[in-house]
Amino acid sequence: MEKYMFGKLKTATLLILAFIISGCSTLTLPPATVHQSTTVDVNSYKYLIGAGDVVNIFVWRNPEVSGTFVVRPDGMITTSLVEDIPVSGKTPTELARTIEEILATYLREPVVTVTVNNFVGPFSEQIRVIGEASEPKSINYIQQMTLLDVMIQVGGLTEFADGNDAILVRVENGEQKQYEIYIEDLIKNGEIGANIDVLPGDIIVIPETWF
C-alpha cells in the first residue's frame, strides 16, 4: 500500500512540474561578448595579466608598500595604500607605470617594478580546445605556439575524433571567423604542412566522426 501511494505521489509531482515548466516562456539569451586578443600575429605577443595571477610589486626604497598580490576575479588588487587597482589586461610594464602614477599622490617620484608568478592571464588570451580531444581544456598561450604544441598539451585526439573536420575560431577585427584545420593529417599522418601558428584567444573545436 505504501509503495502504491508513493508511486501515485511521484507521478503527481512529475505532472505538476511538467505543468509549471510548460507554463514558462522560453527566452533566448544574447550571444557571448566577443573579446579580441591584443595579439594579431606571432610577433606582437605581450603577456597580459589576468585574474588568478600573482603579481610582485617592488617599489624602490619603499618596502612597506611593496609586496605580492593575487589578482582578484574582478581583475583588481588591493595594496596597503590603495584598495582597488585595476590590473587585468595590462602588461607588467603598463601596470608598473599605472602604480607609479597612483603612488605619486603619496610618495615622491616612486619607481615601480612588476613581475608575475603563477601565469593565468585573461580568458581572451587563453586557447580553448573542446570536443574530441583526449583532455579538452584551456591552455595558457606561449609565444610562437603552434597547433602541434596545443595538441600535445591536450593529449591528442580521441578514437572517435574527426580531426580533419576540426575548426579554429578566431576573433579578427571584432568578428569571429572560422578556419578549417587538419589535425588528423598533422598528428596521425605526420604532415607537418598541416601545422599552423595559433594565437591567444583561439578556440579549437574537434567534432566526433560519423561511422
UniProtKB/TrEMBL annotation:
UniProt entry tagged with the keyword ATP-binding: no
Keywords: Signal
Coiled-coil portions: none
One Pfam short name: Poly_export
One MF term in the entry's GO annotations: polysaccharide transmembrane transporter activity
InterPro entries xref list: PEP-CTERM_polysacc_export, Poly_export, Poly_export_N, Soluble_ligand-bd
Occurrences of domain Polysaccharide export protein N-terminal (ranges): 43-116
Residues of the signal peptide: 1-27
Chain ranges of the Soluble ligand binding domain: 127-175
Transmembrane feature ranges: none
Keyword Signal found: yes
Protein name, per record: Sugar ABC transporter substrate-binding protein
Lineage: Bacteria, Pseudomonadati, Pseudomonadota, Gammaproteobacteria, Alteromonadales
